[in-house]
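Intended use. Records like the one below are meant for learning the mapping from a protein sequence to its folded structure. Do not use them to infer anything beyond what is encoded.
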Amino acid sequence: MNKKIITIVSIALLLLTLSTFAPVFAYLGAPYDPYYTGTEDYGWSATGPYAEHLLITMYGSPEAEWDAMKLGQIDITDWPLTRAYLNQFTNASGSPPYYTDVAVADYGAALGVRFLDMNNNETRGGAYSMFGDKTPVELTADNPHIPGQIVARGSQARAAMAHLVDRNQINILLGSMFTSMSVHITESPLFTGWRSTTANVFPFDVQKAANCLKSAGYIDNDGDGWIDIPGTNTEIVLEFYVRLDLMRKTLGDWVQARLVGDPGGATPNLRDYGPGIKVNRHDVSGGGAWLSVMCDKVHDMYTSGWSISRDPTIHYGLFHSKFYWHPGDPPNYNYVNDEELDGYMEDSVYTDTVANAKTAVLEAQNRMNDYDAVFNIPIFSEWGNQAFKKTILNTGVNWKGIINAVGYGPRSAASWEDSFLNMQPDGTLPESALPLTIRYGWKEMDMPTSLNPYQYSWVWDADIIFHAYTTLASANPYNPLGNGPGETPPGDFEGLIYGNWSIGSYERLGEPCTNMTFWLKPCLKFHDGTPVTAVDYFYSVQMALYMRVDHPEYGWIGLPAWFDSNVVDITPEFPGDTLGVGVDMPDGPDGLKICVYYNVQSPWAFWWAASGIPVVPKEKWWDVFYPDPTVGVGLDGFAPDPQLIGTGPYKFYPYYIDGPLRDAVHYTPGSHMRMDKNYLYYDARTGDFNVDGTVDGSDFFILLQAWDTTPPSDPRADPNYDGTVDGSDFFILLQNWGNNYSYT
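Structure written out for the chain above:
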């Protein structure tokens, strides 16, 4: 008998013996202990969500949301705990004993760094810029660096600030309130092997700081004890913007004291060695910082913090000179501009191997710390602990599926929907607890600034947007950096919209370039039920090119325009249609294949294509954008598509509203926002290949029809997306046999 027939008959006989077969959802540890154990049994899945609602409540400060957790008002928080609250939530002898129903996830070193930013613009909102002054000066003999060297005056002012930062002392101060670690380069401590060990370290030395200033001509011209603008009797007044959270407020207090403190204090300051520098301090929220620092750029200094991506080439997007513009809110709002640094950063992204990229990254770090550079000052990276409830409100039933992502924590920016996608009850809920709601606390009050997936610039905007919109892929939260520097692409990814991919090369103008091919998952739908095809991705890229490359003044999308500006061609395969844009797209069998061609060679191309573009429905967005993209019809603004339709696990409520979202009852600025479960969020690994709500014989028949075909004759029968319909796909069906799902 034919081997294929024997195999199929055997499978059929086995299925006949099944009544129900419970799915396996193995979450790490106890339901309230999500710590990664090091096993391969990852605790997350791309299936879900299990909660009907996601309710985001805005509290205005971390302390307010932590107090709300004490009162049982929220299930999960968004900010690392201070030591005081950490002790309250973990103290077994505390009164009241919060630890009995509040768990704390230790997620290790944050995938991010806190900086003291300095504005490198030559003028700061039209005013004199101490740190941006390009006037050439010759270093004097008492300068701690290289006497006789010609440098820019502003670089010596920045070097002086670097000598005024005592990372050890700051770490001691912060250590009494947080767990943190000092850093002197721009990479997170998580980037093992990608952090320079030879970069210059500026020791804390106030005398050297004073000498740097004097050598650059920053002196007290009128004898009143304060440094003046060179050649004048006008005092320099630094506009210092300090974030309100305790972590950065503490940093701001310490830095300010080094500039204006009275002589003879316990810790030296400038006035112990000469004139001080006056400071005009602004304590600002995230929204205030965005407007004054990122948009208006009227700051001299700012206590910033970047939750950086898992890509160690992030320097390029943050500090390359071409990513500054005005007006607008560019990523390089400090206008770091240095030809040598630009070159290293370009070499880190445009190269043929990860090893070459690593060399360039290390050189970029070294350049950032050169005495004639010092474009900003990395200071510390926190070691994070976040709190969440063990049980669901008023039920006694535990939460399970809370994912503690490496470097990010339970509220995971590694993959925005990780915990909210997977959180579910570990048992049966009483009727009174239904519909199930995840209550998420925010420290910010004046966010989001935008719900436009093509025009946002703030992590808080993204924290909402990417529950509703998804990119092609998501990183494994337990292994966001991958297994080794030789990987292409580095990192461990899970396809959200793509099912399989390949990376290749082609020749363009005599140079090798990179191309990517993706096969999208079958059966995926937008919130309104429209199928997701390669055409939607094609137009998503076209709109991103327009918004992020041709018109960066509209804002940036969290990922810089260079991710898209290297696209020279993108070709979806679908039943023939050019849709009137002059791009000939060949026929294809299913509308699920997409090819992306870059005009450069890069090992990072996978990330650019798979995690850089939110996929939106062409039918909704193209009416806004086309046929007159030259004027940017409707693409800017708070929410260009008032229906806000995406592919994500949650949708805005009500997603079909007429008029601005700000008028919707379920978004009250400064108070709360509610998002609802997307019942159409479907993953073939559920085994329900025909999406009829039940894993049964009809799904087995789909598998049977496509058995042993490569590539699959029916893509639905290949739930593990390995390109062949075989026993591994049958095992997924077997695991889910008898399950029922609701898609309405």
